[in-house]
Amino acid sequence: MDSSADPAGLGAQLAALTTEAFRPDLADIDRLPTRDIAGIMNAEDATVAAAVASRLPEIAAAIDATAERMARGGRLIYAGAGTAGRLGVLDASECPPTFNTGPGQVVGLIAGGPEALVAAVEGAEDDAARAAADLDAMELGPDDTVVGVSASGRTPYAVGAVRHARAAGALTVGLACNAGSALGAAAEYAVEVVVGPELLTGSTRLKAGTAQKLVLNMFSTITMMRLGKTYGNLMVDVRASNEKLRARSRRIVSLATGAADDEIEAALTGAGGEVKNAILILLGEVDGPTAARLLAESHGHLRAALRAAGAARG
Question: Are strands 171-176 and 76-80 parallel, antiparallel or unpaired?
Fold first, then answer.
């Protein structure tokens, strides 16, 4: 029988999960002074980074496989429900301004759709068929990567997304916070970050949510590094869509080149406001059209374009 139709069976499943475990030592935490509760929470949070560190080999392997596919035109797609789904949408939504990713290059799917970002959508997380339909609507291909995100590692929407994506030939990653999860078993790459029981029993927006955010930060950031969207630790593909980002663009060009303000302004003008192109104009001693051509030939990798500019100068 499907556990979703068997409350007792589902209860037994949840009781066996580390993320759902009860902490008897915290049974009276609500009676403590606020400062003490904050201290306990902070101490719990301090353990999360170590849990993530223990999974770095799996994380790195999954990132390299994803970057290889994205370099061929593939997409990075997160799929999850509740907090996990919201974290995926958050990470995806921050890629365009940070890395100037194209429309649909990094996507966050959440069970229940956009409404679920701000309110619970009853039953959405249990709908594995909806996950398959959401992916089918994207015309999933073999160069795409689908990362299922679920603290429990059993959420039907996330597991269903990964199973469907794997059957379609896409790369699959399962990010969970329980060992031996169904999500990890369904994916080609299992990333199971075990953070232990939560301070509030079963409230996986806490340590589990923090762990997922840390891993997603790595996933998008390092993938974009591999795709040439950074130069050192500078966001050279930043999209200057407001005054703050325009000021940041000028500062990035300054940090990368050490050029004078008037030279930076001239380079940005010649580059149409593109930071990476402006840096190439200044360091490679080329004009705007040449910078654009060299970057296109180098698939957007600034270091490769600079080498090409240097070789052309002889």
Answer: unpaired
